Amino acid sequence: MLAWLDVDPGRAGEKYEVIRRRLITIFLNRRCDEAEDLADETINRVAGKVAVLRDTYVGEPTLYFYGVAKRVFMEHLRRCSRRPKPPPPEPPRTEMEPHLKCLDECLEKLNPENRQLILSYYEGQKQAKITSHKEMGAVLRVNAGALRARVHRIRGKLEKCVLECLERAGESNDIKPTTI
Amino acid sequence: MSRRSEEQVLLRNYLLGDLDEVARERVEQRLLGDDDFAERLSEAEAALIDDYVFDALPAGERKSFDENFVTDEERRRKILFARTLEIYVEERHGPRPPAREDSRPEPPRKNPLPFIQAHKTWSAVSALLILLLLASPALLWWLRPTDKRAVADRRMAEVNKRPFARSVQDLPALELALQDNLLREGGGMQRAVLADDIKLLTLKLAPPRKSYENYSARVLTVGDDELFAVDGLTPQVDAGVETIPLNIPAEFLPTDDYQIQLRGRDADGNPVEVGRYKFRVINEK
């Protein structure tokens, strides 16, 4: 199946992972229990047909995956009526401390420009933040979407760094991470 | 809410579970095969979480968010991370004080010595009065009532006496509307950021289901320790909305989490709890 996705094995492996992740996202958005299992079932069914597909199928492989995913979804409809949970309540201040400490460390690792950008993005209160984002965009000469994209990339790095920090802290017991 | 492109609206509605089947399938097909589209969906998710954390979601979207969005642990984690970032910035990188608007240069100071020498008696009396004024805080402190709780209760009674005194109404205040915790749907704790110039926090408590003539309020820590209390609170109607205003001097609220226990009185005059309201204070003084 990997060869069907791409002739280069490295790229094929990456495409496989991407497709799997996105299938999981699709099943989760459709409120399916065990979204990973359903994604794996989809992939297994496609893998079972690859010998035929290689010679007969014309088109984007991902569309074929999607067709199979829809069938899997219909067959497992009963497993796809889970009620999502409400948003998590704000944890007590004391439980936030390890996260804030890790955030401190991780912000230091950003270059000064990115650090200032993300701190400025979150400054201010509530609705005022939305207005200040427009002003920031004007100063940086980017539209709101580009600003958001840039902040999104920085935040992704920060979030990964904080997670790793909390895991390390859990191993060293220097900071007690809280699973929230 | 900023204006969005059609695609941004589509992605947002997909995340909120507000698309019909045809539109949803179009999004999903594209998601599987288009890396840029997938990245834009991820950005749309982050923007939606930001709007939620910033309390900038319109009521309809907020309802869909509460009912449909948190499909897995990863989204839960992202919401909490966004909150952590917001709290971090509020507490450790609060907004800078506004720059002085008056940029006129100060006038040059005059030498006071010749004037004092020419008006010795008047200068001596003035100096004495100034010394007394400077010493009065120390005198008042020395004469202060030592019971901090009594002082706090007295001050609370002053700022909550109905009708509100002009001096109370003129204080720079921050208003915060609170719902009873039992009735509040999802979401995080309401938060009040008390900037340096704010002297009063006015909590607008949503009235309980059963109404009373008047109420008492106890301000508690999250561990239920009572800090101070006030009686005689009455509802008020403002722009057609009834609330029970509760004023708290800003200096009584260092950065922490608090709760208000609202009580009415039953037919026998016994206090009965009718509501509990939680909030967080970030005090920048």
Write structural notes for this entry:
The complex is a heterodimer of chains A (180) and B (285). Chain A is an all-alpha fold. Chain A folds into two domains: 2-79; 93-172, Arc Repressor Mutant, subunit A. Chain A has helices at residues 2-5, 9-29, 35-56, 61-75, 93-109, 112-122, 126-140, 144-172. The relative contact order of chain A is 0.08. Chain B has two domains: 6-92, no CATH class; 148-283, Immunoglobulin-like. Helix content of chain B is 42%, strand content 24%. Chain B has nine helices and nine strands. In chain B, the strands form two sheets. In chain B, strands 2-9-8-4-5 form a five-stranded mixed β-sheet. In chain B, strands 1-3-7-6 form a four-stranded mixed β-sheet. Chain B is extended and about 90 Å long. Residues 96-104 of chain B have low confidence and may be disordered.
Question: What is the topological layout?
Answer:
The complex is a heterodimer of chains A (180) and B (285).
Chain A: H1 2-5, H2 9-29, H3 35-56, H4 61-75, H5 93-109, H6 112-122, H7 126-140, H8 144-172
Helix pairs in contact in A: 2-3, 3-4, 5-8
Chain B: H1 6-15, H2 21-33, H3 35-53, H4 59-69, H5 73-92, H6 113-118, H7 120-143, H8 148-160, H9 166-169, E1 173-178, E2 190-194, E3 200-205, E4 215-221, E5 226-233, E6 236-238, E7 241-249, E8 256-265, E9 271-283
Parallel strand pairs in B: 1-3, 2-9
Antiparallel strand pairs in B: 3-7, 4-5, 4-8, 6-7, 8-9
Helix pairs in contact in B: 1-3, 2-3, 3-5
